[in-house]
Amino acid sequence: MNLYPLKFKPIAKEIVWGGSRLARLLGKPFDAGKKIGESWELSGVQKSLSQVANGFLKGNNIEELVEIYMGELVGEKVYEQFGMEFPLLVKLIDATETLSVQVHPDDETAAQRHNAYGKTEMWYVLDAAPDAGVYVGFNQPLGAHSFYEHTVKNTLPEQLNFEQVQPGDVFFIPAGSIHAIGKGVMLVEIQQTSDITYRVYDWGREHNPATAREMHLDLAIDVLNYTAQHDYKTSYLLKKNNLVELVNCPYFITNLLEIDSTAGRPLLGRDSFVIYLCIEGALSVDCLGMKETLRKGETLLVPACIADIHLKPEEKAKVLEIYS
Questions:
Q1: What CATH number does domain 244-323 carry, 1.10.10.60, 3.60.15.10, 3.40.50.1000, 2.60.120.10?
Q2: Which pLDDT tens digit goes with each residue over 19-53?
Q3: Other C-beta atoms within 10 Å of 241: how many?
């Protein structure tokens, strides 16, 4: 049977800093009484492999699909590079407390130390409490020695660049960038398939035996980018019914599309799967005589072998379009 657009069961990650917005605002089928910090929408991470939720492939996980369909599913160039490992991880994150300050290694370092890929990622803000924000990069150049001194003296927060956020804000975070999601922020995270994180600071929680988690300062100190940028937020101009490119990096391309009328999307020639994540409103995705509805917070994987689709909004909708 032919491949078709695939939905997957969201994978709930119960975390101490999580909340209830993923269920309340995005309709995720999670227990409202649990602290759900992350919903892994599409994952090729071992022990957290996404399972198909629709059609005749229901119940199969993403690794099984890649093994069977190979380039038909992910694209020939993607399969040649990554084999059976799906290359991207798409998450929804709800932070009710400020997360630890961390950094991720690049591919070369991750391969040497962990036999894994590094982690470059991006954020798209979905919701934010008043005055909520994120920490991305340094607000002034530092050296490795001064960085270490600031962590020891608990003065690192004063060296971090803080950005107050609102829905629609975008941040690109290459491997080596110091970062933390602030209290009250809910966002989409798109990243390489990697679960390697080096924590360098945890707002004092690391000094309390009840809350302490492993720190990785020795591993982080030589992967950090100690430079400072003028502006860390990605600027873009929204154009209704037109694709707007948000991020274009070696690991993924992410576009934003706001539509209020039917839009055709020719996909053949990319040699890649395409992911659609609805971030506002609702729409249907039509192809091969089939229709799947996407509501806010839902994700769809369109196999590489599908030549074109039609997006039909219910009044209006916003979607992220992601591919390798």
A1: 2.60.120.10
A2: 999 999 999 999 878 999 999 999 999 999 999 99
A3: 13
In CATH, the number for domain 11-220 is: 2.60.120.10
The amino acid that residue 317 corresponds to is A
**pTM higher than the cut 0.70:** yes
Contacts of 300 (CB under 8 A, 6+ apart): 5, 6, 7, 275, 276, 277, 285, 292, 294
Within this chain, domains 11-220 and 244-323 share the same CATH topology: yes
The CB-based long-range contact list for 204-207 (8 Å cut-off, 24+ gap) reads: 204/154, 205/100
Domain limits, the chain: 11-220, 244-323
DSSP E strands: which ranges in 96-168?
101-103, 121-128, 133-138, 160-164
Question: pLDDT tens digit string along 250-264?
Answer: 999 999 999 999 989
Helices within 7-143 (DSSP H only):
21-24, 62-69, 71-74, 76-82, 107-114
CA–CA separation, 250 and 106 (whole Å): 12
